[in-house]
UniProtKB/TrEMBL annotation:
It comes from Kwoniella pini CBS 10737. The lineage of its organism: Eukaryota, Fungi, Dikarya, Basidiomycota, Agaricomycotina. This is HAD hydrolase. One of its GO terms (molecular function) is hydrolase activity. It comes from the Eukaryota. One of its GO terms (biological process) is glycerophospholipid biosynthetic process. It holds the Pfam family Hydrolase_6. GO terms for cellular component: mitochondrion. Keywords: Hydrolase.
Amino acid sequence: VNRTIGQRGLHATTTPFPNKLAFAFDIDGVLKQGHHNVLPQAKRVLELLSGSDGRLPKPIPFLLITNGGGVPDEERRAILSEELGVELTENQLVQSHTPIKEYVEKYKNKPVLIIGGKGESCRRVAESYGLKYPYIPQDIIAWKPSIWDRTELTNEEKSFVKTTDFSKISFAAALVMHDTHDWGRDITLILDLLSSNKGIFGTRKKGYDKSNFKGDVELIFSNADVEWRSDWPIPRLGQGAFRLSIENIYKSITGLNLPFIQFGKPFKSTYDFSELMLRRYLKQVNRNSNGELNVYMVGDNPLSDIDGANRHGWSSILVRTGVFNDNNGELPSHKPTIISDDVEKGVEWAIQEEI
Ligand code: G3P
Ligand code: MG
Protein backbone atom coordinates (compact mmCIF):
# COMPACT_ATOMS: atom_id res chain seq x y z
CA VAL A 1 0.00 0.00 0.00
CA ASN A 2 1.36 3.41 -0.97
CA ARG A 3 1.50 5.37 2.28
CA THR A 4 3.43 8.42 1.16
CA ILE A 5 1.82 11.79 1.84
CA GLY A 6 4.38 14.50 1.12
CA GLN A 7 4.38 16.19 -2.27
CA ARG A 8 2.59 13.37 -4.05
CA GLY A 9 -0.18 13.14 -1.44
CA LEU A 10 -2.53 10.28 -0.60
CA HIS A 11 -3.40 7.99 -3.47
CA ALA A 12 -7.05 7.02 -3.15
CA THR A 13 -6.60 3.88 -5.25
CA THR A 14 -3.92 2.38 -3.04
CA THR A 15 -4.45 3.98 0.43
CA PRO A 16 -7.46 3.52 2.70
CA PHE A 17 -8.88 6.99 3.53
CA PRO A 18 -8.63 8.21 7.22
CA ASN A 19 -12.41 8.58 7.59
CA LYS A 20 -12.38 9.08 11.37
CA LEU A 21 -9.62 11.70 11.30
CA ALA A 22 -10.29 15.38 12.14
CA PHE A 23 -8.00 18.23 13.22
CA ALA A 24 -8.36 21.09 15.71
CA PHE A 25 -5.84 23.85 15.06
CA ASP A 26 -4.70 26.51 17.48
CA ILE A 27 -3.96 29.77 15.63
CA ASP A 28 -1.23 31.87 17.30
CA GLY A 29 2.07 29.98 17.23
CA VAL A 30 0.72 27.24 14.94
CA LEU A 31 -0.88 28.81 11.85
CA LYS A 32 0.25 32.39 12.51
CA GLN A 33 3.04 34.19 14.33
CA GLY A 34 1.49 37.55 15.19
CA HIS A 35 -1.21 39.58 13.45
CA HIS A 36 0.25 39.55 9.95
CA ASN A 37 2.54 36.55 9.66
CA VAL A 38 0.85 33.41 8.34
CA LEU A 39 3.24 30.43 8.34
CA PRO A 40 3.73 28.97 4.83
CA GLN A 41 3.32 25.47 6.26
CA ALA A 42 -0.12 26.53 7.51
CA LYS A 43 -1.33 27.48 4.04
CA ARG A 44 -0.08 24.20 2.57
CA VAL A 45 -1.74 22.13 5.31
CA LEU A 46 -5.11 23.86 4.93
CA GLU A 47 -4.95 23.47 1.15
CA LEU A 48 -4.25 19.75 1.67
CA LEU A 49 -7.05 19.18 4.20
CA SER A 50 -9.66 21.28 2.42
CA GLY A 51 -8.93 19.34 -0.78
CA SER A 52 -8.26 22.57 -2.70
CA ASP A 53 -4.85 21.34 -3.91
CA GLY A 54 -6.32 18.09 -5.20
CA ARG A 55 -3.82 15.90 -3.32
CA LEU A 56 -6.55 14.28 -1.23
CA PRO A 57 -9.45 12.29 -2.74
CA LYS A 58 -11.76 14.20 -0.33
CA PRO A 59 -11.36 16.80 2.46
CA ILE A 60 -10.27 15.93 6.00
CA PRO A 61 -12.41 17.98 8.45
CA PHE A 62 -10.81 20.60 10.72
CA LEU A 63 -11.69 23.58 12.91
CA LEU A 64 -9.73 26.39 14.55
CA ILE A 65 -9.79 26.89 18.35
CA THR A 66 -8.07 30.02 19.58
CA ASN A 67 -7.69 31.84 22.89
CA GLY A 68 -7.59 34.93 20.72
CA GLY A 69 -10.66 37.01 19.97
CA GLY A 70 -11.88 40.57 20.29
CA VAL A 71 -13.62 40.61 16.90
CA PRO A 72 -17.16 39.28 16.21
CA ASP A 73 -16.96 35.59 15.23
CA GLU A 74 -18.34 36.14 11.71
CA GLU A 75 -15.92 39.00 11.06
CA ARG A 76 -12.89 37.04 12.34
CA ARG A 77 -13.87 34.03 10.24
CA ALA A 78 -13.90 36.15 7.08
CA ILE A 79 -10.53 37.72 7.96
CA LEU A 80 -8.95 34.32 8.67
CA SER A 81 -10.39 32.81 5.45
CA GLU A 82 -8.66 35.59 3.52
CA GLU A 83 -5.36 35.31 5.45
CA LEU A 84 -5.17 31.50 5.41
CA GLY A 85 -6.45 31.08 1.85
CA VAL A 86 -9.24 28.67 2.80
CA GLU A 87 -13.03 29.19 3.06
CA LEU A 88 -13.92 28.72 6.75
CA THR A 89 -17.60 28.06 7.45
CA GLU A 90 -19.42 29.26 10.60
CA ASN A 91 -18.73 25.95 12.38
CA GLN A 92 -14.99 26.03 11.87
CA LEU A 93 -13.93 28.78 14.29
CA VAL A 94 -14.07 28.86 18.10
CA GLN A 95 -12.64 32.05 19.59
CA SER A 96 -11.85 32.53 23.29
CA HIS A 97 -15.29 34.08 23.90
CA THR A 98 -17.44 32.04 21.47
CA PRO A 99 -18.54 29.57 24.20
CA ILE A 100 -19.42 32.57 26.44
CA LYS A 101 -22.35 33.54 24.19
CA GLU A 102 -24.66 31.02 25.91
CA TYR A 103 -23.33 31.88 29.36
CA VAL A 104 -24.07 35.62 29.10
CA GLU A 105 -27.67 35.02 27.99
CA LYS A 106 -28.67 35.84 31.62
CA TYR A 107 -27.10 39.30 31.31
CA LYS A 108 -28.66 40.29 28.00
CA ASN A 109 -30.91 42.96 29.58
CA LYS A 110 -28.36 44.15 32.13
CA PRO A 111 -25.42 46.57 31.93
CA VAL A 112 -22.13 44.70 31.45
CA LEU A 113 -18.63 46.23 31.35
CA ILE A 114 -16.77 44.81 28.33
CA ILE A 115 -12.97 44.86 28.64
CA GLY A 116 -10.48 44.25 25.84
CA GLY A 117 -9.00 45.38 22.59
CA LYS A 118 -8.41 48.96 21.48
CA GLY A 119 -11.69 50.37 20.23
CA GLU A 120 -15.30 49.32 19.96
CA SER A 121 -14.68 45.87 18.53
CA CYS A 122 -15.32 44.06 21.83
CA ARG A 123 -18.54 46.04 22.29
CA ARG A 124 -19.63 44.71 18.92
CA VAL A 125 -18.79 41.16 20.01
CA ALA A 126 -21.01 41.69 23.08
CA GLU A 127 -23.84 43.04 20.93
CA SER A 128 -23.48 40.06 18.58
CA TYR A 129 -24.05 37.83 21.65
CA GLY A 130 -27.32 39.65 22.40
CA LEU A 131 -26.09 41.95 25.20
CA LYS A 132 -28.19 45.09 25.04
CA TYR A 133 -26.18 47.31 27.42
CA PRO A 134 -22.47 46.65 26.80
CA TYR A 135 -20.28 49.50 28.03
CA ILE A 136 -16.52 49.82 27.52
CA PRO A 137 -13.86 51.48 29.73
CA GLN A 138 -13.67 54.51 27.48
CA ASP A 139 -17.35 55.24 28.24
CA ILE A 140 -16.52 55.37 31.96
CA ILE A 141 -13.46 57.61 31.44
CA ALA A 142 -15.58 59.95 29.27
CA TRP A 143 -18.07 60.20 32.16
CA LYS A 144 -15.46 60.80 34.94
CA PRO A 145 -11.85 61.19 33.71
CA SER A 146 -10.62 61.31 37.32
CA ILE A 147 -11.54 57.62 37.80
CA TRP A 148 -8.22 56.86 36.12
CA ASP A 149 -6.44 60.10 35.27
CA ARG A 150 -3.44 58.37 33.65
CA THR A 151 -5.45 57.78 30.48
CA GLU A 152 -6.67 60.51 28.11
CA LEU A 153 -9.26 59.56 25.52
CA THR A 154 -8.00 59.86 21.95
CA ASN A 155 -10.09 61.78 19.43
CA GLU A 156 -11.02 58.47 17.85
CA GLU A 157 -12.24 57.15 21.22
CA LYS A 158 -14.20 60.35 21.83
CA SER A 159 -16.01 59.63 18.56
CA PHE A 160 -17.45 56.32 19.77
CA VAL A 161 -17.90 56.60 23.54
CA LYS A 162 -21.46 56.32 24.87
CA THR A 163 -22.17 59.40 27.03
CA THR A 164 -23.98 58.03 30.08
CA ASP A 165 -24.47 59.05 33.73
CA PHE A 166 -23.04 55.90 35.31
CA SER A 167 -24.03 56.99 38.81
CA LYS A 168 -27.39 55.46 37.91
CA ILE A 169 -26.07 52.32 36.18
CA SER A 170 -25.86 49.08 38.14
CA PHE A 171 -23.42 46.72 36.38
CA ALA A 172 -24.21 43.01 36.65
CA ALA A 173 -20.89 41.73 35.29
CA ALA A 174 -17.46 42.60 33.90
CA LEU A 175 -16.46 40.48 30.91
CA VAL A 176 -12.84 40.43 29.73
CA MET A 177 -13.48 39.69 26.05
CA HIS A 178 -9.87 40.08 24.88
CA ASP A 179 -6.41 41.33 25.95
CA THR A 180 -6.70 44.92 27.19
CA HIS A 181 -4.50 47.75 25.90
CA ASP A 182 -4.67 49.63 29.22
CA TRP A 183 -4.00 47.38 32.20
CA GLY A 184 -3.97 50.16 34.81
CA ARG A 185 -7.29 51.62 33.73
CA ASP A 186 -9.03 48.27 33.42
CA ILE A 187 -7.68 46.79 36.67
CA THR A 188 -8.95 49.93 38.41
CA LEU A 189 -12.42 49.67 36.86
CA ILE A 190 -12.72 45.95 37.61
CA LEU A 191 -11.66 46.43 41.26
CA ASP A 192 -14.11 49.36 41.56
CA LEU A 193 -16.98 47.17 40.40
CA LEU A 194 -15.98 44.20 42.57
CA SER A 195 -15.94 46.37 45.70
CA SER A 196 -18.95 48.50 44.72
CA ASN A 197 -22.44 48.53 46.11
CA LYS A 198 -24.64 46.85 43.49
CA GLY A 199 -22.20 47.44 40.63
CA ILE A 200 -22.46 51.24 40.74
CA PHE A 201 -19.22 53.13 40.03
CA GLY A 202 -18.31 55.56 42.81
CA THR A 203 -19.86 53.44 45.57
CA ARG A 204 -18.12 51.08 48.01
CA LYS A 205 -19.44 48.00 49.74
CA LYS A 206 -19.24 48.45 53.48
CA GLY A 207 -16.06 46.62 54.58
CA TYR A 208 -14.79 43.22 53.46
CA ASP A 209 -15.99 40.52 55.77
CA LYS A 210 -13.80 37.58 54.81
CA SER A 211 -16.44 35.12 55.95
CA ASN A 212 -19.27 36.26 53.79
CA PHE A 213 -18.06 38.82 51.24
CA LYS A 214 -20.21 38.33 48.15
CA GLY A 215 -19.59 40.81 45.38
CA ASP A 216 -22.55 42.06 43.39
CA VAL A 217 -20.66 41.92 40.08
CA GLU A 218 -19.53 38.71 38.32
CA LEU A 219 -16.06 38.78 36.72
CA ILE A 220 -15.60 36.63 33.61
CA PHE A 221 -12.32 35.98 31.75
CA SER A 222 -12.16 34.47 28.25
CA ASN A 223 -8.50 33.43 28.03
CA ALA A 224 -6.09 32.15 30.70
CA ASP A 225 -2.91 32.34 28.60
CA VAL A 226 -0.15 33.90 30.69
CA GLU A 227 2.04 33.95 27.56
CA TRP A 228 1.41 33.73 23.83
CA ARG A 229 3.43 33.81 20.57
CA SER A 230 3.15 37.06 18.63
CA ASP A 231 5.44 38.54 15.91
CA TRP A 232 8.17 38.83 18.56
CA PRO A 233 10.23 35.59 18.88
CA ILE A 234 9.94 35.59 22.68
CA PRO A 235 6.45 34.88 24.13
CA ARG A 236 4.42 37.96 25.17
CA LEU A 237 2.12 38.41 28.21
CA GLY A 238 -1.52 37.51 27.62
CA GLN A 239 -4.88 37.83 29.38
CA GLY A 240 -3.83 35.24 31.98
CA ALA A 241 -1.07 37.60 33.14
CA PHE A 242 -3.64 40.41 33.34
CA ARG A 243 -5.80 38.19 35.55
CA LEU A 244 -2.83 37.26 37.79
CA SER A 245 -2.14 40.96 38.41
CA ILE A 246 -5.77 41.58 39.41
CA GLU A 247 -5.73 38.51 41.67
CA ASN A 248 -2.66 39.79 43.50
CA ILE A 249 -3.87 43.36 43.89
CA TYR A 250 -7.34 42.19 45.03
CA LYS A 251 -5.72 39.87 47.60
CA SER A 252 -3.47 42.62 48.96
CA ILE A 253 -6.38 45.11 49.27
CA THR A 254 -9.08 42.82 50.63
CA GLY A 255 -7.24 39.72 51.88
CA LEU A 256 -9.71 37.71 49.76
CA ASN A 257 -9.20 35.46 46.75
CA LEU A 258 -10.45 37.04 43.53
CA PRO A 259 -13.88 35.62 42.56
CA PHE A 260 -14.00 34.96 38.79
CA ILE A 261 -15.26 32.62 36.04
CA GLN A 262 -12.67 31.43 33.48
CA PHE A 263 -13.32 30.37 29.86
CA GLY A 264 -10.86 29.43 27.09
CA LYS A 265 -8.45 26.55 26.47
CA PRO A 266 -7.67 24.27 28.40
CA PHE A 267 -11.03 24.42 30.18
CA LYS A 268 -13.76 21.84 29.66
CA SER A 269 -16.41 24.33 28.49
CA THR A 270 -14.23 25.32 25.50
CA TYR A 271 -13.39 21.75 24.46
CA ASP A 272 -16.97 20.52 24.95
CA PHE A 273 -18.21 23.46 22.87
CA SER A 274 -15.55 22.79 20.21
CA GLU A 275 -16.52 19.12 19.93
CA LEU A 276 -20.16 20.17 19.41
CA MET A 277 -19.01 22.70 16.80
CA LEU A 278 -16.94 20.02 15.01
CA ARG A 279 -19.88 17.62 14.86
CA ARG A 280 -22.13 20.41 13.55
CA TYR A 281 -19.53 20.99 10.85
CA LEU A 282 -19.39 17.27 9.96
CA LYS A 283 -23.18 17.22 9.63
CA GLN A 284 -22.99 20.33 7.44
CA VAL A 285 -20.54 18.59 5.06
CA ASN A 286 -22.52 15.32 5.14
CA ARG A 287 -19.90 13.37 7.03
CA ASN A 288 -20.56 10.95 9.92
CA SER A 289 -21.30 13.58 12.57
CA ASN A 290 -22.28 11.05 15.27
CA GLY A 291 -19.62 8.48 14.50
CA GLU A 292 -16.33 7.84 16.28
CA LEU A 293 -13.83 10.64 15.68
CA ASN A 294 -10.05 10.65 16.09
CA VAL A 295 -9.33 14.34 16.66
CA TYR A 296 -5.75 15.63 16.66
CA MET A 297 -5.28 19.02 18.36
CA VAL A 298 -2.25 20.92 17.04
CA GLY A 299 -1.01 23.57 19.46
CA ASP A 300 2.02 25.54 20.61
CA ASN A 301 1.15 26.02 24.29
CA PRO A 302 1.28 22.95 26.56
CA LEU A 303 -0.82 24.73 29.22
CA SER A 304 -3.77 25.48 26.96
CA ASP A 305 -3.64 23.35 23.80
CA ILE A 306 -2.01 20.13 25.02
CA ASP A 307 -3.53 20.01 28.51
CA GLY A 308 -7.00 20.74 27.12
CA ALA A 309 -6.76 18.15 24.32
CA ASN A 310 -5.40 15.49 26.66
CA ARG A 311 -8.18 16.13 29.22
CA HIS A 312 -10.77 15.95 26.43
CA GLY A 313 -9.42 12.62 25.15
CA TRP A 314 -8.07 14.02 21.87
CA SER A 315 -4.58 13.27 20.51
CA SER A 316 -2.25 16.24 20.83
CA ILE A 317 0.57 17.52 18.62
CA LEU A 318 2.88 20.13 20.17
CA VAL A 319 4.72 22.29 17.63
CA ARG A 320 7.95 24.24 18.00
CA THR A 321 6.75 27.38 16.17
CA GLY A 322 5.17 29.12 19.15
CA VAL A 323 5.39 29.38 22.93
CA PHE A 324 6.96 25.90 23.46
CA ASN A 325 10.66 25.67 22.87
CA ASP A 326 12.79 22.63 23.73
CA ASN A 327 16.12 23.96 22.44
CA ASN A 328 17.61 23.51 25.92
CA GLY A 329 15.98 20.12 26.40
CA GLU A 330 12.95 21.59 28.20
CA LEU A 331 10.14 19.03 28.60
CA PRO A 332 6.57 20.29 28.08
CA SER A 333 4.44 20.75 31.22
CA HIS A 334 1.79 18.48 29.60
CA LYS A 335 2.85 15.44 27.57
CA PRO A 336 1.63 15.57 23.94
CA THR A 337 1.08 12.53 21.73
CA ILE A 338 4.05 13.83 19.71
CA ILE A 339 6.23 16.94 19.41
CA SER A 340 6.61 18.20 15.84
CA ASP A 341 8.68 20.96 14.24
CA ASP A 342 5.62 22.55 12.69
CA VAL A 343 1.98 22.06 11.75
CA GLU A 344 2.74 20.48 8.36
CA LYS A 345 4.98 17.73 9.77
CA GLY A 346 2.47 17.14 12.54
CA VAL A 347 -0.48 16.77 10.16
CA GLU A 348 1.45 14.41 7.87
CA TRP A 349 2.38 12.28 10.89
CA ALA A 350 -1.28 12.13 12.02
CA ILE A 351 -2.51 11.12 8.56
CA GLN A 352 0.10 8.34 8.47
CA GLU A 353 -1.17 7.19 11.86
CA GLU A 354 -4.76 7.05 10.63
CA ILE A 355 -4.42 5.33 7.25
O1 G3P B 1 -4.48 36.42 22.66
C1 G3P B 1 -4.27 35.24 21.92
C2 G3P B 1 -3.31 34.35 22.65
O2 G3P B 1 -3.59 34.29 24.01
C3 G3P B 1 -3.19 32.93 22.16
O3 G3P B 1 -3.98 32.62 21.08
O4 G3P B 1 -4.47 31.21 19.07
O5 G3P B 1 -2.49 30.62 20.51
O6 G3P B 1 -4.83 30.24 21.38
P1 G3P B 1 -3.94 31.09 20.48
MG1 MG C 1 -1.11 29.30 20.37
